[in-house]
Amino acid sequence: MSTFDPTDPQYQVSNDFKPDRESTWPFPPERDGWVLAHNALRGEMKIFREAFEAMKERDEPLKEWEIKAIKTSAGGHLEHINAHHSNEDDLFVPELTKRFHYPKKVRLILSNRGNVPETRAPKTNSMIYAARDRSR
Question: pTM here?
Answer without folding.
Answer: 0.72
